[in-house]
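Subject: sequence -> structure tokens, single chain

Hey, anyone have a minute? Need the predicted structure for the following. Not urgent.
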Amino acid sequence: MTTTNQEPGILDGLLIVDCSRMAPGAVLARALIDLGARLIKVEDPRGGDPMRSCPPLVEGIGVGFCVYYRGAESLRLDLRGPEGIAHLRRLLERADVFIESFRPGTLARWGVGLDQIEARNPGLVTCSLPAIADDDRRVAHDLNLTGLTGLLDQLPGQRLERGDGRDIPRVLIADVTTGLLAHASVLAALLARARSGRGRRVSQPLLSAPLPLVTWAWADRAAGGGGVLETMLAGRVPAYRCYRCGDGKMISVGCLEPKFWIGFCAAVGRPELAVSGLDLGQRGQATADAIAELLATQPRASWLATLAGKDLPVSPVHDLDDARSEPLLASAGLLEDTPMPGGGYLSVPGPTLPSLGRTPVRAAPRLGQDDAAILAEFAPT
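Reply:
Had a minute. Here:
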């Protein structure tokens, strides 16, 4: 396991007030914490962020919340009442960034609309995370958004025509991508503020997040092609696909460049197959079948040993357990020892920006853990 550096981050001294809920805001929050910002997580007294209750639990806190909000502070505020709103106003008067994911119009209805906030703090950067758009109150989740943009249809292994509910993505694509794109938007807005002295509003709708992942496929389809499912990047050529070895374990072969495919075919003892590595037709399928039959004769470890040192883009296809012990991740500094509530550490992927981020030494807070200290610091003067 690798622990990242504890040097001050580039956002050291900046105050982030986070009123968001669930994964998009959490991904953004973690990215900003990684860079050294102080983040106050404002939570509903009635249970806090729903991520807190998502199993498995560590010391009574959802492990996702533990990982994303390590280093944060937790403040309980009832924003449906005047006292909570008054506390939020005082926080925002001194904040650098405000993250919110309320339905459009909710803040204004509570008396803390963005116009009012900015009048009190002209340097504030506000990041909104609506589902669809700033003026659209409809709700949507990750599955809806990947479906609306065409991304779900382009993912391999889908059984959408059967409608049996299986093989939907096991990761949150739109939610996580929203957080990462919002991170870039916030950093850009902070740079603009450094130049002009004024903050700005940025909005990263969740619906926008899958689009960068399907831009090439959209363009391909618009130009008369078949989208990603019909290209060489979709496993339709022998040189770019996954193969099952003799022990049932799989390897990924990414030998798109001719020199790599030639080297691969030579290494496995079938140099005559090098001419059809990028063939989309019947000859390519015959080549892929021949490679599949060959690789099925030996276990994966044997083939990886054969290919070792050949400088080829061939790798094992890991499950999560294997990935957690992959030495390349540790040697590249991409893992961190995240502090956990109650003591101890959990090895997880490291800071969002590895070259700039660091691991906070403080575990994720319990709900309302910092109420007294924060309310005293931001008390009316």
